[in-house]
Design brief:
The chain is of the alpha+beta class. The protein folds into two domains: 2-116, Probable inorganic polyphosphate/atp-NAD kinase, domain 1 (Rossmann fold), CATH 3.40.50; 132-284, Tumour Suppressor Smad4 (Sandwich). It contains ten helices and 15 strands. Strands 5, 6, 7, 8, 9, 10, 11, 12, 13, 14 and 15 form an eleven-stranded antiparallel β-sheet that branches. The protein is elongated.
Length: 293
């Protein structure tokens, strides 16, 4: 008989998982899998680390948004627990789930886990301390996800982020940045920096159409300082899934990079508030096993 831990965020999205806990447990028990629920809040509590360290689990199930998945993956990676992860998406954007092609319905997401098909994905690592799966971003718009009202997220989904982002356009605050990779150095005034592991970010689809979460490489997107009109044009190109223009955007690929940036710049990691400006980011090639359709 297998044993798994279910790490869930009771406040994510439509909050369906807390109401469906018994049926979730039943689905797994029907397959001779004992599943232990663990309620995730903000941050990385010591109790979660202790629980994962003391118990033996064959795999982990995470329910929530990208931030909840980030908390769970950080716990597993910090403890060097090489167990596969299943994801039941219940957040606002679910960028990572969409990159993997995971279903957004509770029943179908559990089906994927129970079918047992797995693949390996890259994992980002910031300053040898914090892991991420989707994005690390700094500058304009990055506070949208964690400053948007929860009720708006539930009522409007990703549209809540778009509406909030439009109000931020008037607050352009350029910053100086230097990005160094193994074969390129870019330096200048920017308004936004995004480091991606997949195609989607903040509910925006196909920001980098050719992104691959299994190639060991990060996609780096720097939006240069530009006028409000140019920024609005760029914003609507992203919404329309058009290719990012080279005029105001610098794009790079690398397995690691270093950043030199003004200290006041706000960063987010997988949609949650970051811990200052990252200095070094590297990718761990296929560092995590996940269940996929």
């Amino acid at each position: 008989m297998k044993k798994a831990i279910l790490m869930y965020n009771p406040l994510s999205g439509s909050q369906v998982v807390p109401m469906a806990l018994d049926s979730i447990v039943e689905r797994f028990q029907e397959k001779d899998i004992i599943i232990q629920p663990y309620r995730i809040g903000t941050g990385l509590p010591n109790l979660l680390l202790t629980t994962l360290e003391q118990e033996h689990y064959d795999f982990a199930v995470v329910s929530g948004g990208d931030g909840t998945l980030n908390t769970a993956v950080n716990a597993l990676m910090k403890l060097n627990l090489s167990i596969p992860v299943g994801f039941i998406p219940s957040g606002t954007c679910n960028d990572f789930a969409r990159c993997l092609g995971l279903p957004l319905s509770l029943h179908e997401a559990i089906d994927v886990i129970l079918e047992g098909k797995m693949t390996e994905v890259d994992v980002g690592l910031i300053d040898e301390k914090q892991y991420f799966l989707s994005t690390c971003a700094g500058g304009l718009f990055v506070d949208v996800s964690f400053n948007t009202n929860n009720e708006m997220k539930r009522n409007f989904g990703p549209l809540a982020y778009y509406l909030k982002a439009l109000t931020e356009v008037v607050n352009i605050r350029p910053f100086s940045i230097k990005i160094t990779t193994k074969d390129r150095v870019v330096e200048g005034e920017a308004i936004l920096l995004i480091i991606l592991n997949g195609k989607h970010v903040g509910g925006f689809y196909d920001v980098i159409k050719e992104a691959d979460f299994q190639d060991g490489m990060m996609d780096i997107v720097m939006v240069k300082n530009c006028s409000h009109i140019d920024l609005a044009s760029l914003f609507f190109k992203v919404i329309s899934r058009e290719a990012l223009p080279d005029t105001h955007v610098v794009k790079m690929k690398a397995d690691e990079c270093t950043l030199e940036c003004e200290k006041h710049v706000q960063f987010s990691v997988d949609g949650e508030e970051g811990k200052g400006v990252p200095k070094k980011i590297r990718f761990i090639h296929r560092g995590l096993s996940v269940f996929v359709p």
